[in-house]
Every structure is written in structure tokens, then in C-alpha cells.
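Standup notes
- DV: blocked on the single-chain target, sequence here:
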Amino acid sequence: HIPGTIQPHGYLLVADAKRGQVRHVSENIGELLACSSGDLLGKTLDSSLLAPLLPKELLGRLAQISLETFPVHLSTLKLPDISLDLIAHANKG
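- DV (later): unblocked, structure below
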């Protein structure tokens, strides 16, 4: 709700749509994964580091979504300690 920020209970992952390469992540995303946020930069969305957040079936669904349908709720992901709503947005392609 505040430009340039995310809510404290949220996590952000920005990827290049054409290459599927991670360009930016929120610092707190390391709370969800067994790596630091910096370890994700430059990785592709199908990287094993992102497998807990982006299972292959979600990646396939993301590839099929038209840019006109964004934002779109992809799934609710249930991890051991948290449930996450995965929402995709497109910005300037």
C-alpha cells in the first residue's frame, strides 16, 4: 500500500518474464528458503533454490497467463509454518 515497500508479512520476488531470471527479492525471503536473498539473484525461476516456493506446476501456469489478466492469484502454498498466497503481477512487460 506504500509505494516502494511491501507489508512486513509479505515477500517479493521480481523476475524477467522473458528469461525467467530473478532480478530482485525482498530481504526477508531468506526466512522462507535455506539461502540468503542474494543467493537468488540471477537464478532462474526453475532453480532448485526456488522449488519450495515455485513448484513446476505453478511455473507452467504462470507461463500460460496472459499479461491482460494480471494480477492473478496463482495458488495458496502451504509450508510447515506458514500459508502463502502466490500472486503474480506484470509491470511494463
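- Follow-up: The radius of gyration is 13 Å.
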